[in-house]
Design brief:
This protein has 191 residues and is of the alpha+beta class. The chain has one domain: Cyclic phosphodiesterase (Cyclic Phosphodiesterase, Chain: A), CATH 3.90.1140.10. The chain has 4 helices and 11 strands. It has a 5-stranded antiparallel β-sheet with strand order 3-1-9-10-11, with helices on one face.
C-alpha cells in the first residue's frame, strides 16, 4: 500500500518566505519547508497496481496555466482548540477548475469522491496544546502576509511516507498544465 495525494509544488522561493513565519507559537510542529505544498486531492492508501490507473486519469486532465499568490494566514480548530496554522490561497477560478477536473478524473477512474470541501491552503504547522493568546498573536502579526505570485504550470502526484521524524513527501509523477491533449510520454515520472 502507498499513501498518495495530488498537489501543486511550491517554488523554493515561496517555501523560503513561508519558512520565515515559523516562530512564536509554543506547541507548534512546523512543516519543513521542503514538505510545503498545496493539496488538490487527497487519495489515501492505494494498492501499488492502482498507481497506473491514477497516472492515466491524471494524464487526461487538461487545464490552463495560471498564476497564484498566497495571502493571509489562518487556523483550523477542533473542539474549540487550534489544531493547525495555514497560509491562505485565494479560490480563483483556474485553481478551482483544476481541482474539479482532477476530482472528476479520479472518480471516473473508480476512486470514491472527496468527502471534504476544498479549502485551499498551505499548512504551516500542526498545533498541540498551543496557547490561544500565542495563536492569536501569530494571526495578528501575519494577517496581511503575502508571498510573491508564482506561475502554476504543472501539478504532481505525491507519495507520503511516515517516519520517526514525521512525514516525507516524494513526487511520483508530474503533469504539465496545457490546453492540448497530452500523451503518456509528456508525463514526467520521477525516479
Amino acid at each position: 500500500m502507498i499513501r498518495l495525494f495530488v498537489a501543486i509544488e511550491l517554488p523554493a522561493s515561496v517555501r523560503t518566505v513561508l519558512g520565515f513565519l515559523h516562530a512564536g507559537v509554543p506547541g507548534a510542529r512546523w512543516t519543513p519547508v521542503e514538505n510545503m505544498h498545496l493539496t488538490l486531492r487527497f487519495i489515501g492508501e492505494v494498492e501499488e497496481p492502482r498507481i497506473e490507473d491514477i497516472d492515466r486519469a491524471l494524464l487526461a486532465v487538461r487545464s490552463p496555466r495560471f498564476s497564484l499568490e498566497l495571502a493571509g494566514v489562518g487556523h483550523f480548530e477542533s473542539a474549540g482548540q487550534p489544531r493547525a496554522l495555514w497560509a491562505g490561497v485565494p479560490k480563483i477560478a483556474p485553481l478551482i477548475g483544476l481541482r474539479d477536473r482532477i476530482e472528476s478524473a479520479l472518480v471516473r477512474a473508480g476512486f470514491a469522491p472527496e468527502g471534504r470541501k476544498f479549502l485551499p491552503h498551505v499548512t504551516l504547522a500542526r498545533l498541540r496544546d498551543a496557547p490561544a493568546p500565542k495563536v492569536s498573536a501569530f494571526l495578528g502579526r501575519y494577517g496581511l502576509f503575502r508571498a510573491p505570485p508564482f506561475p502554476v504550470d504543472r501539478f504532481a502526484l505525491f507519495s507520503s511516507h511516515h517516519g520517526r521524524n514525521g512525514s516525507t513527501y516524494r513526487v511520483e509523477a508530474d503533469y504539465e498544465l496545457a490546453e492540448e491533449p497530452r500523451t503518456m510520454a509528456q508525463s514526467r515520472v520521477r525516479s
